[in-house]
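Researcher: We plan to redesign the surface later, but first we want a full-length starting point. Tokens attached.
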């Protein structure tokens, strides 16, 4: 519990969300409409996915998959490709932050074991870009997608079709980026002698149960069953099977969502503010979401702008591509930075420099690609 409150105090986005919520509640006194601000469906599904994915992580399933994929890797460039693609593809199903929490430490250990520290910064940076861009293809890839998918009522095909061109172009950019990574032997054959990357595989029974729960969560996203039914199933099953997992959801993120829900709900009830924001965002959804993401990150930008825009597809594209750029444009990027910084404290400045250059290049390339698509279509 002490650790939880320590996290609250040290999370600037959470603090900002609730400071704004409290200030706005002075302007719009709390009443029965406050409950209508909160998107309980999105929060419930997000919580369920967090629990299930934490269950998978507890059983080392993602690391095991990574080790299997690395078995036939022989060169540095092949190694980098596997590590980066694991983040790109994995983030589509386990969210960008979980992909980075899992695969960045895995990459750090693997590259150290292979004596390829020279690849460390470019690979970790590209893993971060890959996770932020791969996650944009699916509604469950990141929190802002899940929220907008529920808010807009889009169908899954509509969502995927909207984001697919940008995902494919992102994959192309990542493959081109591999050409800038120094090739050479990866020394993977030595790892079995001096290093064990993956801890023992978990319970097969638990993996099967969590797989079933994951399917239930997916069909809930697709609006087949009510979110609260899914939440109760996951709560009851995990409580009986492995109760400690229930404590490992990102409750800080859920509280952040609630704070921004209250703030944006109150702003929407102040005519002068609402009219101004709608006017400012009208036909500029992409640009404004990109700019806002650079300063407050893309999840809060989504929550703040969603109540004042009409073109939700532009907002969806903007907040996903807007995760590129600054280190805080996507809070998931901080996961990689902290993981790298813990092991290589003296190289933090170099990491930030490379990260910023790569992210700006990707941001500009994807923005140009969007502009070309707009002209063609």
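Model: Full-length starting sequence:
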């Amino acid at each position: 519990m002490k650790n939880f409150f320590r996290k609250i105090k040290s999370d600037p986005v959470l603090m900002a969300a609730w400071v704004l919520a409290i200030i706005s509640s002075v302007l719009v006194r709390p009443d029965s409409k406050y409950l209508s601000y909160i998107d309980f469906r999105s929060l419930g599904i997000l919580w369920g996915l967090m629990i299930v994915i934490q269950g998978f992580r507890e059983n080392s399933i993602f690391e095991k998959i990574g080790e299997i994929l690395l078995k036939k890797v022989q060169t540095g460039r092949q190694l980098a490709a596997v590590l980066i693609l694991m983040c790109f593809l994995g983030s589509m199903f386990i969210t960008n932050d979980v992909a980075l929490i899992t695969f960045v430490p895995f990459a750090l250990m693997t590259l150290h074991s292979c004596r390829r520290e020279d690849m460390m910064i470019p690979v970790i940076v590209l893993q971060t870009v890959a996770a932020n861009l791969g996650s944009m293809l699916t509604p469950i890839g990141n929190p802002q997608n899940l929220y907008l998918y529920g808010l807009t009522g889009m169908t899954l095909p509509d969502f995927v079709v909207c984001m697919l061109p940008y995902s494919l172009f992102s994959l192309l950019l990542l493959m081109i980026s591999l050409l800038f990574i120094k090739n050479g032997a990866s020394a993977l054959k030595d790892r079995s002698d001096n290093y064990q990357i993956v801890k023992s595989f978990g319970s097969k029974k638990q993996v099967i149960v969590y797989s079933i729960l994951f399917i239930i969560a997916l069909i809930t996203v697709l609006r087949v069953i009510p979110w609260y039914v899914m939440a109760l199933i996951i709560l009851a099953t995990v409580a009986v099977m492995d109760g400690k997992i229930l404590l490992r959801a990102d409750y800080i993120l859920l509280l952040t969502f609630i704070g921004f829900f209250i703030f944006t709900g109150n702003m929407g009830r102040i005519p002068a503010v609402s009219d101004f924001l709608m006017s400012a965002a009208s036909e500029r959804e992409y640009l404004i979401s990109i700019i806002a993401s650079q300063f407050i990150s893309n999840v809060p930008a989504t929550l703040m702008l969603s109540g004042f825009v009409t073109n939700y597809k532009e907002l969806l594209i903007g907040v996903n591509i807007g995760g590129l750029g600054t280190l805080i444009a996507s809070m998931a990027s901080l996961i990689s930075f902290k993981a790298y910084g813990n092991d290589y404290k003296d190289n933090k400045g170099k990491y930030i420099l490379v990260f910023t250059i790569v992210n700006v290049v990707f941001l500009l390339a994807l923005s140009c690609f969007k502009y070309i698509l707009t002209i063609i279509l």
